[in-house]
Structure formats: C-alpha cells, structure tokens
Specification:
Layout lengths: L24 E3 L6 H9 L23 H15 L3 E3 L2 H9 L52 E8 L17 E8 L15 E5 L7 E2 L2 E4 L4
Parallel strand pairs: 3-6
Antiparallel strand pairs: 1-7, 2-7, 3-4, 4-5
Length: 221
Amino acid sequence: MGSPTTETGRDYDEGPHHVTIAKPFAVSKFELTFAEWDTCVTYGECAQLSDAGWGRGRQPVIYVSWDDAQHYVSWLSKLTGKPYRLLTEAEYEYTARAGSQTAYPWGADLGNNNANCNSCGSEWDNKQTAPVGSFGPNKFGLYDVVGNVWEWVEDCYNADYADAPLDGTAWTSGNCNLRVVRGGSWSAGPRNLRSAARYEVSTDLRDRRFGFRIGRILGAP
C-alpha cells in the first residue's frame, strides 16, 4: 500500500507499507448516485443536496460530507438489515489497484480519456462530474475508482503510515476531525488520480468535488 519513492507525483504521506486484508468485503461497482441518495431523502432520512446544476439520477452525489456519508450507510443498514459502511483506506487502495502496482489502475501513464479529471482528456474535464460508469471498469469490474469525485473513506487522517493497521481495518486514531478522501476528482490534476494518492478533509465539509462509494461486511450474521 502506498507509492514507491520513484513514482512521479508522489507525496510525503504515501508510505509504502505492507497490508494484508484480513476479512472479505463487498464494494459497490459505482460511486453513490443522486438517485440512491435521493431515495434516502424521500424516506426523510437524508438532507437535500445541491447537484450544482449538473443533474441528478446517474450523476454521483456531491456536496456530501463525511458525516453525511456515515448517516447514509447507517440508514441503508437499518433499511436492509445488511452491514453497509464506508470502505477503509486500505480497502479503497486494494480495490482501486485491482492487482496493479502502477501509478494508475490502468498503467504507469495517465493516458487519454481513462477518467474524469483536470487534463484526463474527457469531455467533462475540469467542468463537472460525469455520469457513473462513463469510463471502462478496472480489473475488479469497478467504475470511477479514480477521477469524477473524491471518495470518502472511514479512516482518520495521519501524516504517515507509521503504526497504521496492517489488516485492512480503519485507522481510528490520529486527527479524527480530518478524514481521508481518495481517488481525485473532475477538477483534480493527474497526480491526485494515482492509486496511492490521499488527501485529508474536515468531516463536516460539503463540496462539489466530494462523494463516496459503499462497502459491506461479508460473512456477518
């Protein structure tokens, strides 16, 4: 997990270190959409959020804080009886890489039109979000694991991986007023789309660059 010192664009807080994912988990194929979020709104359980004029439906939900994301997974778990949650930071990188060890899930170079970012070569670059699934999946069959919106994960932010959990669980100590986002966004530069890139954000910040995808515990009663 993390980036080698030779990787172009790497930051000081990217490790690397070895992690073994100890427990199986499921992850959503797509970033959470406005259609899914607005269902929670209809139930009276989630806040109405702006779509910045970009549309709802299959657009990824935006202006969602970490606190909002936690509220959504709690509601979904109660509604379905299944243990939904945010991914941990280690799980995110594992699923984003899908077995790759290169800077990007698809290879060592950014390429053209592989994702939605600032300078990715897509029609949405540095303008707005794209409908989920607008680009090809990674080798795990997951879409938009980098680009489109930054994705909230469970972990508190720490400036390096010293004493980080080695079993794939969330890091629940450190600066927990700041949580980690992963994957870059429609306005982020290429370095932020690398599989190892990480960024810290206040838990209550709502921004049109931020969304999330959900995970689910497997093997639970």
